[in-house]
Request: fold
Amino acid sequence: MGELRVRSVLVTGANRGIGLGFVQHLLALPNPPEWVFAGCRDPKGQRAQELQKLASKHPNLVIVPLEVTDPASIKAAAASVGERLKGSGLNLLINNAGIAKIHSIDSETLKDMAEVYTTNTIAPLLLSQAFLPLLKKAAQGSTGSGMSCSKAAIVNISSIGGSIKEMFSWDITNCVSYRCSKAALNMLTRCQSMGYREHGILCIAFHPGWVQTDMGSSAGHTPPVTVDASVGGMLKVLSKLSEKDSGSFLDWEGNVVAW
Reply:
């Protein structure tokens, strides 16, 4: 089984949960990236302490201030990453930052629907737009034909909760705003795969599993999948993807998830 080899990666929501797991696993690879950019709302805050510890040990880890719902913050992050890369481009953008609001269908509100949609769907759109020049540069600078995550890719962390066919765990939690935002993120992934194909950028939506994170446990149940298993699985899958997979919705073990 091949391992992911990539020169530069940006992970959003990198201070905890799956995002932090990605950072830890990437740094621990036998051939780690030259640059791991960890997007985080408050890099100096209490909730970023684990990231700060990692950054003190790994000179290739750069913590990037990033509020994914703020276009000015996204623009500043893209400029900062571009400066650090010195013209080499960004290989992998992992849109991981996300939120959930636990409501029944009867108690959903305009405010919460809008906030969840902004973070889970609009932010990955804006981030991909902002980092597109760097992704294109990476694709153009890579040797070989076809698409791969080592070349240039956008990875959107979705959820089986967004599968219209599955309606996973409806009885446990309705989470309508979250489900709708992830279904929309899946469509965004398809649109990106069509729009960015000509640039050689692979686009994929991932269901990371029902993972033992703050969000995963917020409905009061213990999820079955650890962060380690989820992230390790996704990185294995990413190492094997090619152009035929672009626009797919896969789980952390590489299985296709129904739309």
